[in-house]
Amino acid sequence: MPAAPGLEVSGADFQAEEIRELLSWPEVAGLAEVMDMRAVIDAHPRMIAILTEALASGKLIEGHARGLTGPSLQAYLAAGSGAAQFMVGFSLKKLLIQVPAGIIAVWIASRFIDFDFGTIGNIALSIAGITVLAEGVACWIPIPFFSIMADLTVMLVGFFLLFELSKWQTYMIVLLNFAVLFGAHYLLANYINQSGSYGSRPPASAR
Length: 207
What we know:
The chain is mainly α. It is built from eight helices and two strands, in the order αβααβααααα.
């Protein structure tokens, strides 16, 4: 906090000392939403100090590392095998949740609009393609707000083109998709995986 220093004002500026204190609290599960991916790759002193405290605590670390290739991927891998495992595992888990959520959203939408979406297999492939493309586009945008907007735009265009929907049908599908995703994350966080977190690292003793 802030996620992008110099680009947003969030009311506080947490440094490594504050993170160390927060991570010492038993009710804090870990360090979440490390959005400044470039600071991690470029080894910015502030970010490295924060991540060092998180790693030393042995608690969870969650963040964003989408679409990394070449030198950027090598820099990320240099953080250790745990970082690589986290990056791949998080992306796969997101895809495994997004595809069923999209299928459910399409099924709900089909109750309200008269439209042939095709077979479940075709729907799943289309949603997987939209998700991968959205992740790939958003990862090149360093500012979190614009990254999310890019992700949303790709989803809107993807549903509009692949399913040949009208504008309002596309809006309804995407809104339903986000509603189902929110429900899925709520269930995972509160009922299914209370001992960990979606996309979380394994405990320090397991590494």
